[in-house]
């Protein structure tokens, strides 16, 4: 309340507070986390709207993400061009959706995009197979993986087209009470 | 993304956003599944639209807009202070290595710590601080043993009910006076009402967030296992590998259907199973009853010894500690017996085993607290003690303290020694897991004792606050050094809801009935405390209302008292109203379920 900071203009801070679920203090703290990834690339004065993008390698090396099997997909989904290179806005957006204040529908939308490896707006069998392998460190046999994927499609595919659309996914998430607490990264 | 909002174009979206209130608009923008750049663009457009509209409408109410913005920022700052960075970092480390289920215990502990800080502040400011102004110095000496027994020197301090005066305190002649009797009863009463509301709202909040009606026909076990059980909170490399291994094991088990026992039991086998379950339940309830009887006779014995000759020496003071130690021992050892019983009975799913064990533990703890309350309210209160409330306060103080010590010891033996044994002597045991159920029940038990004790010992929440603080850090250190992450993640989302529900339902409601009986039915002691000489504690309020009747300015207070608080009709009306509202909500939920089913059928066809 009234702490003078010289990184953002008041208008920028208000915009970030209105567009994410973070408070002013959290936004400044996240900015410093972003900057700590590459102090020489990120200026301390954002009022001139610098166009700074950090490459995926730096984002993926954050302690919150470096051991997550889906870190590449997470960074790709939240980056502007889908390549994992993130601006500060993308960075704030990513952690805002993954915070505990984000509502279920928003998280489900982004979770769907994360699990959709080939970006065709459907989670098809190959996407599921990649998910299962990432979740079990490739230790299941291909037959077992295939069996699991078939079961999942059988259970969750409501419109019976052999793959999961966003509606199927959201319908399934509605019935899983754990989703809100597990799809959450604390920063 | 526009299809999600049902808008044909961006202009429609901007237009509709510009016409709703500021709070709604901010929420709508936050919820938009768009990149940050797009959200900021839309926000700018909406703000331009608003300024355009307000220019048409006339001089804008800049005051309101600014006021709303300042209010929101203030609310944000306030929530930041409650969610202090100290807890945030600690909780993050715990969540990162052990996952959300273990984290929920620590979140619950933090919540209870905040509740106790709030209780302590209320009691301290309204009851204790005025008492300091009218205090008489104590003439007893202080020996170190008092910290454990709570008796001796502490008897004549603000720690206990007996010390508080029944006078009207006023420092300045003819100045503002402070009626201690009314202050005591109103503070305790309003505090319990606030607690009730806090618990109700927390339960509703967690329930609405996490309760999903799980229709067994449509519940997708495998899909939710795949998409919803991976805990993104876990960021420690070893823990991630462990989680992957556990998921791998679970999937393999599901595929080979190991857990699904063939449920074709013959009649004989079914009868045998039911007989074993029945026997186990009889054994558990019998143990609980036996424990209660033991505690009851021990307490009566204690009281007799106390009344025969109260000497202030070491031996009799230590003898007072026997009861709390016995109670804590029973509370610690009998649960092991219950879980051994649970292993003997072969449950069909591990979830059933956990539920049954927790239910038995709850029954044990409720019976022990119940028998103690019965002893305090029927035996102690009607005995010819000089100051029975102080004795009850001391009993509760000792119970709380010994329970705290046993909690620390339990951590030491249950986790530290078990780790040593599991890694050096008996390799097959391995590292222990953090037992969430047992620890949560311990917390709820401690909080129940604190709530009961508030009336008799106003500073008890302060002591419990310090105890919880120490327990938090001891448990955290013990967890990080000695335990391994849990193998089976069990219903994480409903955990916080069920903890608060358990806190509300047997614990808080039970405390309310005990306090109710104390305030309305019991006769306070004649020579000590703020209600000395009255026929009941509630009589203080009745007398005050009688005094108020003579002032015309406060007729409305008297009217409220006679027609609302002490009239049965009003409570009937309120209960009827609450039941009607509950029924209406229930019907709405049922209606939504039916609609969801219909929609599903529509999609399918």
The coarse overall form of chain A would be: elongated
Assembly context of the chains: heterodimer
| Full CATH superfamily name of the largest domain in chain A | EF-hand
Q: Unreliable runs of chain A, pLDDT <50, ≥5 residues? A: none
The chain-level structural class of chain A is mainly alpha
Number of domains of chain B: 1
Instruction: Assign an overall shape of chain B.
Output: globular
Give me the strand/helix succession of chain B: HHHHHHHHEEHHHHHHHHHHHHHH
Overview of the structural elements:
Chain A is mainly α. Chain A is 52% helix and 0% strand. Chain A contains 10 helices and no strands. In chain A, 42% of the residues are buried. The mean pLDDT of chain A is 88. Chain B has 605 residues and is an all-alpha fold. Chain B has one domain. Chain B has helices at residues 2-5, 10-18, 22-30, 36-57, 62-82, 85-98, 100-133, 146-149, 180-210, 221-228, 237-256, 267-308, 314-319, 322-344, 350-380, 388-425, 436-453, 460-482, 492-521, 539-549, 555-565, 568-604; strands spanning 168-169, 178-179. The relative contact order of chain B is 0.10. Chains A and B meet through helix 1, helix 2, helix 5, helix 6 and helix 7 of A and helix 3, helix 4, helix 5, helix 6 and helix 10 of B. Chain A: This is CIB3 protein. Chain A: GO terms for molecular function: calcium ion binding; magnesium ion binding. Chain A: Keywords: Calcium, Magnesium, Metal-binding, Repeat.
